Amino acid sequence: MVRYSPLGTLSMLKHSPRMTMMAIFSALAVLSVVTLVALRPSHFAHPLHFFSSGPPPPPLDSHICPATGPNNHYEQLYGHEFLQRSIAHEGSNKRLREKIAMAQRGEDIRMAVLGGSVSAGHTLDDWTRVYYHRFLDWWKEQFPEGHHSIFSGAIGATDSGYFAYCFDKHIPKDVDIIFLEFSLNDASTLPCEMNDKKGSIVQAKMMESLVRNLLRLPRKPAVIMTSVFSYNVNEYLDGQESHLPISNYYDLPHISMKNALYDHLNRYPDDLRFKLYNDGHHLSNWGHQLLSDLVSHYVERQMCAMSDKVQPVILDNYSYKESIPKFDMFTHRWEQDKFRELEPYCETFADQSYKPRDMDGWTFWDWQKEKFYIVADVPGSQVTFEVRASQGVVYLYLFRSADYNLGNIWCWIGDEKDKGRELQGYWDKWYSVGVMTPVAEGLSQGKHLLHCELMNKTSNPEGGTNFRILAVASG
């Protein structure tokens, strides 16, 4: 794997023939009570209880394709119903099957991953045991003739909003398959803990922008969405609810560990929790193996479907033949003539060669060579960025936290300081993440200057005035 950086059995009851019928009934009654008390249903009915990590299954036989049924490797491990539940959206898989066909011809397949701390391998002793590296091993077993690789663009505590504009700073553009994992860091469109119980479509818009831009890349990559979930979060709703409509609209496969396991862990919290997580939030080695197996099984299903000789009859002009939908999800029909594709522009401090146009009182700073910022503490400190607009929007990717003495900044475009916008670094949530925050909308196409000034005013109850910016984005 490559870290991409253009910048850098119940035991059987035995009894004597001499045992009386009454004794048999008594023994069975006792056994039933003991079984009900000692064994929860998951222990004798749930196949996960018997699962242990092992080598990937052998390559599929070209004449026998056991994607389902009792002889299938994954169904023996997990059971048919569990695997079916993990497929949140099946899709037609047109693009994925094209990539499989390429690999079957012996061509090289280049993959990439965008995601948060789970995909970055946090809490793993060996980050190469992350789910997509295991999947790459499986893929190489299936298609040994090609030279296959995967690029990691994952960054902890980072949501899809950042990558919607800055993805090409972290993965190459000439890739064939892309995995997305943002269910923990994106908020639901429904009222939830992460959006202050208000509900918001912002996260869905960001993920759609990311997906649409990835699908437009030169090699027309297949995009596979994945969902995990945190045991430490107090509710069901998370980024998956923002992502599923996008899976539907763009015909993307969506593999969900949450669909398969959320209710099980509620019913039997000690059954798998300590096996699935290292800290209740980040997956363990076993958790990554499980997610890899779910994805591998799904791809295996597509390989088997491709071996089916029955071809459906499709209308000659059916839109299935089109690469992506003509318009995005949020464009009204009566405004379609005004639709313009987002041409993302991003300058990120992960690119350590990038410098804003002007800085006074701001300094460069990094956290463990993983997070890169410009930081200011003194009110009045100013920074100016040059941005480019296609759809007329400008964002700052800000660090937000209840810690670190964070304060407020005032940002404006051009000379219109009085029409600016106040942005807050402090919030009262328990987690600390980067947040793509709108600064301006409705700008004319072309270049603009964005100015920001650290304010004396602060939303921090302790008076903090520190501020951290990770990136500036526009489109």
From TrEMBL:
It comes from the Eukaryota. InterPro entries: SGNH_hydro_sf. Coiled coil: none annotated. This is SGNH hydrolase-type esterase domain-containing protein.
